[in-house]
Structures are given as C-alpha cells and as structure tokens.
Write a structure and sequence with these properties.
The complex is a heterodimer of chains A (about 400) and B (about 350).
Chain A lengths: L5 H15 L1 H4 L17 H24 L7 H17 L4 H23 L4 H20 L3 H4 L5 E2 L22 E2 L2 E2 L3 E6 L2 E6 H22 L1 H11 L1 H6 L4 H26 L2 E2 L6 H14 L6 H14 L6 H7 L5 H11 L7 H15 L3 H13 L8 H5 L4
Antiparallel strand pairs in A: 1-6, 2-3, 4-5
Chain B lengths: L1 H31 L6 H19 L2 E10 L5 E7 H6 L1 H9 L1 H23 L9 H23 L15 E3 H4 L8 E3 H23 L1 H11 L1 H6 L4 H23 L9 H16 L4 H18 L2 H6 L3 H16 L14
Antiparallel strand pairs in B: 1-2, 3-4
Helix pairs in contact in B: 1-8, 1-11, 1-12, 1-13, 2-5, 2-6, 2-11, 2-12, 5-11, 8-9, 8-11, 9-11, 12-13, 12-15, 13-15
The chains are: A mainly alpha (about 400), B mainly alpha (about 350).
Chain lengths: ~400, ~350
C-alpha cells in the first residue's frame, strides 16, 4: 500500500492513528483531578511533540543511516524559522509559503555547510558541524541583527509591509498566522463529562506534516538510496572499492535532514511567529541528538518516541514540585515520607535533566538501539516459542 | 604598540585555560583513544572544588556579641568561622583569604580520584565501541555531572575571590617604559598564566624524563608492542586519565576567581577546547598547547575595536573560522601526528 510493505504500512497507520487521536490519548485524566497535571493534551505541547518529532526523524536520516554525528543541526532549524518569520513579515500571513521558504532556506544552508563539513568524517565532522552551528549562532546573535533581530529575536511588528494581506487587523493588532483564513491558534474544545479535549488547528497541520515526513522517511529507509546510506555506515572503504562515491549520497542525506530541520523550524514559526538565535545554539543540537539516540537511532519510530518523551519530561515532569510529592507519599509515616521525597526530589521536577542524562547514558551503554530495541527485547522475552535464531533479525536496529 | 601588547596579554589567560583543557583532552585521546566530551565537566568540577573549599573554610557558628545590638535592640549574633577559634583571627582570615590556592592541594587527589572512577567505571567499557558512542556516553555523563552540581550549588554563578594580595592590577606600562596606565593587567591573570605554564611544563617533564612517562609515550606510539613486552599499559593509561582529569580540575580551580563558577561553564569551554584540539592536531600535546595560546591571542586581537570596525562580528567567530580553515587545508591540524584518527 502506498509503495510500502505490509509491516511498514501498519506502522504508518499506527502513527497516523496516534497523531490524529492525540488530543484524546494525551488527556486521559479528567479536568481538576489529582492526575490532571499529567495531561499533555494542550495545543502548545502537542505542537511541540510533532514538530520535534519531524526534527528528530530528519536527524535520524543522517545519523541513523550514515552514522555521521552532526552537532549542528539546530542551525538549520533556526535558519528555517527566520525564513518563515520573514515570509510573514513581507509576503503574507499564510503559513504555506512560509513553510515552503523555510524548507528551501534550510536546504540551501545545509547544502553549503554539508558540502564543506563532509570533506571530513568521524569526530572531525562532528566538530566541523559544531563549529559552523556556533558560528551561525554567534552571527545571528550579533552582527546579523538587522536580519535576525539579535538578542530580542525576530518578531512581527505593526508596520510590516505585507504584500498580500494587511499590516494590522481592523482592531489594530498584528494578524496571526493562518492557513487560508484558518487561524493556527484557533482550537475547538469538546467537553465530555469531566474531560476537556482540545483540537487545535496548528497541531493538526503540524501533525499532517509529520505524517508526511514519517512516510518519506520510511520510503528513504527502504529505498536503494537508503541501502547506500547504510553501506556508508557499515563500511565506507569497501563501498569506495566497489566503485561507488560515498560523498554525493552522504551530502544528499545531510541536505534532506537539513530540510526536515527547516520544516520543523518553519512550523515552529507558524505556531508562534517569532524566531530567536537561541534555537541555533549547540545545546539545541544536542537535544535532537538526545531525542534520536534515546528513542533509537536507525529505527523508524524511535526518533518520534524520543522526541515525545523528552518534550513530555520537559513540560510535565518538570512541574512536579516538592509539595506535590509530599501529597503523593502522604500515606507513609512522616519520617519515611520525608526520606522518600528527599530521595526522589533531585530526579524530578527541576532536576529532570539529571534523570534525562542518566537514562540517556544507560541507553547508550546497554541499548544502542534505544528504547525501541528495549521494547523489542522485552517483547522477545514473552515470545518464548520463537527459536533463538529468529532474534537477530528482529532486534537489530538499522546497522 | 601598547595596544598590541595588551591584546597579547589578554589572550594569554584565556589561552592558558584553553591550553590546559586541550592538553588534558589530548592526553586522554592520545593514550586511550577516547573522545571525552565530559572533559569540560571536569574543568567545572575543579572550579567547584574551589567553591567548596572556601565554603568549608568559612563554616561558622553563631556567637552573641554583647557590645553591639541589632536593629531590635537585642544583642547581635555574629557568625564566627571555626578557623578563628582554632588559629585566631589574623591567621584565620589569612587562611580564608587564600582559599583558592589551598584548593589546589585538595583538588589534585579529588580530581585524580574522579578521573580514576570515570575511567574504570565507564570509559573502560567503550574502547571497542565506535567514536560516536564514546562521544554520546561522555556527553550524557557531562549532563549528569552538570545537573548534580546544579542541584547542590544552584544555577547562579558563585563569586570566588582571589587572595587579597593578587587583587588589583599590575601596570606593565611603567615596568616596560610605556605611559602609565597604558597596559594594565590584573595580577591574578598573570598568576594564572604562570601557573598554567608550570602545569604544562610539569606534564611534559613527567612524560619526557621519567620512566613512567617513557612507557606511556611508547604506549601512545604502539600500544600492542608495549603490551607484548609484558607491561601492563592499561594501568598506566588509567593513571594518565587521572592526571588529565587533575590538569582540567586545576585549570578550573584557578579559573574560579577570573570567572565566577556556574554549572554550565564546562560546556562553554568544552566546545572551544575541542576546536583547539582539532586545530592543534589530534593526539599532539605540543600542538594542543600551542593552538590553545594561539587561539586565545587571536580571539583577543579580533575583539580590538580597530578590527571590529573592518570586520564586524569577527570576534565572535574567529576561533571557529580558523578551525574550519585549518581542518579543510591541513586535515591533521597544525602538529597532528600521522595515522591518528584518519578514517
């Protein structure tokens, strides 16, 4: 179906189902209940899930398939969002041209950086991309202020010369990004008993793009081109001995993943029309590395899971404070309660980065295939009937 | 001319920090072949050893001072460091004042121990894994160390002053026959520069003139043969890891008065130190040191207003720009050895 094998098509259907039903799935707890703080079904966070999902899917095409570890991918995301905001400022508030231009700009930018960086491999490639990204960040922050808005970031203003559309709405406000009149921030709220579900236009647009991106990535993974990329990862020397030049393939993978990052940046700007230099900083690049590895580099669904998990931790877990913890463990005797809270508190709430770091290290050490591999291992434990020799096929991530 | 000298001096202290961190990175890389992204965290830990030592030295208990009253009219409670009780006020003050130099002595065993634990506990298991895995696991470790420090010390920079004797600036102008006040340089930065020269010299002397160092150098050149000769090279490399950690830690201790330590200072330095190592040449110790000073000085020249007028923003990107040019034109870096990390 759609040029996919049955297994991949099922995976695609699952992803479509999950993203479309996300407003329900992420809001399992009724409003006002004790557990309501674990609800992640509000538009802002759902948008972030899918946007960072796109970013990580793109990164995975480069790292998961070719094994080239880029520490500068955030630069493309940043470039994409700048491009999108400029489109809003100059052309129109319609999101489609903005997203298109952000992909194009990020593609060109990654072509330039990739062409230079890919002359080296291994650690040198990582450092070159890191250097380029830090350079872009420093420039965006200082000299390029007329284009990037410098420290304050690039924002819409009341006197933007918009060619199609108006500079100000009738009420004197800045118009908001929309898709042919459908405002990105508009939501439909549906109350069912104690539950409140929010269906946000921006989220569904971003989700559509993510499904498209996911579909593209499956196609790339299963194509002869994807096979070439895997060959680069497993043995580049042997590949060149067979008469194949690895460089164009790697560069293509780099540009594709740069365009994915640009798409994510453009969507980010469409949801909230501003762009700042901090999106380009190397810590932001590090974040997408974390997402991809955590979920499972080289697997199809892994990066999306990793992105979702990190964003969930960042937004939900980090809000748990000491009072809430005391509430949870109130059933324990006082001394024990304080002890348990004191033991747990450093790892959640504001300390969620610590948990993230530890989990990440554990994944790198024990599960090179990420959480997806972990899931497969657990599944294999329950499938006792399968003989031993069936295991390698099932558990190995793309190598 | 005086501007010229001033910029060189300004570059030296930053260059010293780069050189020290890059030296440690290269030591680890040259011996164990591991790319250590947690090295910046070691630098930061060193700075926090200084913070901890000065916190411990100023541990105090409350004493009611009968002669003074607080705003409510009650007798005033004064914090008196325990050191006053033990050594008297003058000696106690002197010890507290010299907290940072004292931390150096304490930092060495602590950092060596941390290095040992890191190598034996974690990095040992990653020798056979790809470089990308090494980068990732040490990157994760760096995050964990950072967050632990953040948990205990908070997110704000903690000012850690240098001893009174080194506060203030040295007027180079007078000493070298320029106008007074033309070249002013803080004493502590001078101290930092000489300290780093001393450490670098000590590491080189250790490698060059001791039997241990000779074995380590032999191991760097050809690990397998040294192993065949019946020498337990792994043990020696572990010790070198400890030394590298101590070098990074000492760089951090001494840097605390220059820049108040905060939990992410390590990451800020790490990126630059990697660039330094690559420019100097992976695996080359003299290259790392030379590139450290060179880039430090280049950076301070680039921030001269005369240069910024011609090329705006150059001070922000000069180091990266140099790194990119070097990597593309001289793939081995300035003094890189043949055969190191050349895939």
């Amino acid at each position: 179906m759609l040029g996919l094998e049955k297994k991949d098509f099922r995976l695609l259907l699952i992803v479509i189902g999950l993203t479309m039903l996300a407003p329900f799935l992420l809001n399992p707890f009724p409003e006002g209940s004790e557990m309501a703080q674990f609800n992640a079904g509000y538009p802002d966070l759902m948008q972030r899930f899918v946007i960072f999902g796109i970013f990580a899917i793109g990164f995975n095409i480069l790292f998961g398939l070719t094994g080239y570890l880029s520490f500068g991918h955030a630069a493309f995301l940043g470039a994409g969002s700048y491009g999108a905001v400029w489109m809003f400022k100059l052309l129109s508030m319609n999101v489609l041209p903005a997203i298109a231009i952000s992909v194009v700009i990020a593609g060109l930018f990654s072509l330039l950086i990739g062409y230079i960086s890919l002359r080296r491999s291994g650690i040198y490639f990582s450092i070159l991309t890191l250097a380029f990204a830090q350079m872009s960040f420093a420039l965006a922050y200082s000299v390029l202020t007329p284009i990037t808005g410098g420290e304050t970031g690039l924002q819409l203003a009341l006197d933007d010369p918009r060619i199609f559309g108006v500079s100000q709405t009738a009420t004197g406000n800045i118009p908001v990004p929309a898709l042919f009149g459908l405002e990105m921030r508009s939501s439909f709220e549906w109350e069912v008993g104690a539950w409140l579900f929010t269906f946000n236009t921006g989220y569904y647009l971003a989700a559509l793009f993510m499904i498209l991106a996911f579909y593209m990535s499956i196609r790339i993974f299963r194509s002869p081109f994807g096979m070439m990329l895997r060959a680069i990862k497993s043995n580049q020397t042997r590949m060149s001995y067979t008469g194949l030049n690895a460089k164009p393939y790697t560069l293509a993978a780099f540009v594709i993943s740069g365009m994915y990052a640009g798409l994510a940046g453009g969507l980010m700007a469409s949801m909230d029309p501003l762009a700042g230099a901090e999106r380009m900083q190397w810590t932001a690049s590090g974040e997408v590395v974390l997402m991809t590895i955590l979920g499972g580099a080289g697997t199809l669904i892994g990066p999306v899971l990793g992105a979702g998990m990190i964003k969930y931790f960042e937004n939900i877990f980090s809000k748990i404070n000491e009072t809430i913890l005391h509430g949870w463990f109130a059933f324990l005797p006082d001394g024990l309660e304080n002890f348990v809270v004191a033991m747990i508190y450093p790892f959640i709430g504001k300390g969620w980065h610590l948990t993230l770091g530890i989990v990440f290290m554990l994944v790198v050490i024990f599960l090179p295939g990420g959480l997806v591999q972990g899931g497969q291992k657990i599944a294999a434990l329950f499938k006792r009937s399968k003989p031993e020799d069936a295991k390698p096929n099932a558990t190995e991530p793309a190598e | 001319m005086d501007q010229f000298i001033l910029q060189i001096l300004n570059g030296l202290d930053k260059g010293s920090a780069y050189a020290l961190i890059a030296l440690g990175l290269t030591l680890i890389f040259g011996t164990l072949g591991v790319v250590n992204f947690a090295h910046g965290a070691l630098f930061m830990l060193g700075a926090f050893v200084a913070v901890t030592v000065s916190n411990i030295l100023t541990l105090s208990h409350k004493v009611v001072d009968e002669t003074r009253t607080d705003f409510l009219g009650n007798p005033l409670q004064v914090d008196v460091p325990y050191l006053y009780d033990w050594f008297g006020q003058t000696a106690g003050d002197a010890i507290i004042d010299w907290a940072v130099p004292i931390s150096i002595i304490i930092a060495i065993p602590i950092m060596v121990a941390i290095g040992f634990i890191m190598e034996r506990g974690l990095i040992k298991h990653f020798y056979k894994r790809p470089h990308a895995d090494q980068i990732l696991v040490t990157f994760g470790l760096a995050i964990v160390i950072q967050e632990i420090v953040k948990y205990f010390y908070g997110a704000n920079p903690i000012p850690t002053p240098a001893p009174e004797a080194f506060v203030g600036s040295f007027d180079f102008g007078v000493a070298f026959g320029f106008d007074p006040n033309a070249i002013i340089y803080p004493y502590w930065r001078l101290v930092y520069f000489f300290f780093s020269i001393f450490i670098i010299g000590a590491v080189f002397a250790f490698l060059q003139f001791t039997t241990f160092g000779m074995v380590v150098r032999a191991g760097m050149a050809d690990r397998e043969t040294v192993g065949i000769l019946g020498i337990d090279i792994d043990k020696r490399f572990t010790i070198m890891f400890g030394i590298a950690a101590a070098v990074a830690g000492l760089a951090g201790v001494m840097y605390a008065p220059i820049n108040s330590p905060n939990y992410h200072m390590g990451m800020d330095f790490l990126v630059l130190s990697f660039v330094v190592v690559v420019v100097g040449g992976m695996g080359s110790l003299p290259g790392a040191v030379a590139a450290g000073f060179l880039l430090g000085i280049l950076e301070s020249f680039a921030s001269m207003s005369a240069v910024i007028d011609i090329l705006p923003g150059i001070n922000q990107i000069i180091i990266y720009l140099v790194a990119i040019i070097i990597l593309l034109t001289r793939p081995r870096g300035l003094m890189g050895r043949k055969g190191v990390m050349e895939e």
